[in-house]
């Protein structure tokens, strides 16, 4: 996974979003820009906050070997993945180009059909 994300997927995403922002056919409206900023901020918060909550919980000795199901993970099994899709939706909206929406769509589909099932299988075997 890491051999695909950093050398392939991340550069393609960044180049795609940069090209989308550079080759704008029309200006992004103020409303679109504000919604994009809100999506980016909300997604960043969801992803970062959920990971920090889990990290702080896992560092406590009494929680060693336990599965974390508190904080934002009490509301969603994958708030960090949701946050990533939301924040990249903000980026896609900010470019003003419809075709940049492939990024959050691809991310969402890869989470649903690959990463989440893989993680669920791992968690099922790890926390029997």
UniProtKB/TrEMBL annotation:
- Signal peptide coordinates: 1-20
Check the record and name the PROSITE patterns matching this protein: S5A_REDUCTASE
Q: Does the keyword Transmembrane apply?
A: yes
InterPro entries tied to this protein: UstE-like
Kindly list the residue ranges recorded as spanning the membrane: 98-116
Any one GO CC term of this protein is: membrane
Q: Which UniProt keywords apply?
A: Membrane, Signal, Transmembrane, Transmembrane helix
| Designated name of the protein | Steroid 5-alpha reductase C-terminal domain-containing protein
Native organism? Chloropicon primus
């Amino acid at each position: 996974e890491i051999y695909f994300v950093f050398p392939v997927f991340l550069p393609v995403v960044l180049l795609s979003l940069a090209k989308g922002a550079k080759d704008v056919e029309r200006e992004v409206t103020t409303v679109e820009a504000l919604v994009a900023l809100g999506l980016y901020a909300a997604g960043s918060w969801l992803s970062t906050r959920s990971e920090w909550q889990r990290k702080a919980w896992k560092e406590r000795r009494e929680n060693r070997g336990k599965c974390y199901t508190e904080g934002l993970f009490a509301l969603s099994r994958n708030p960090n993945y949701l946050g990533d899709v939301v924040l990249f939706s903000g980026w896609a909206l900010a470019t003003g180009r419809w075709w940049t929406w492939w990024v959050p769509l691809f991310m969402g589909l890869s989470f649903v059909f690959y990463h989440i099932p893989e993680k669920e299988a791992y968690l099922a075997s790890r926390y029997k």
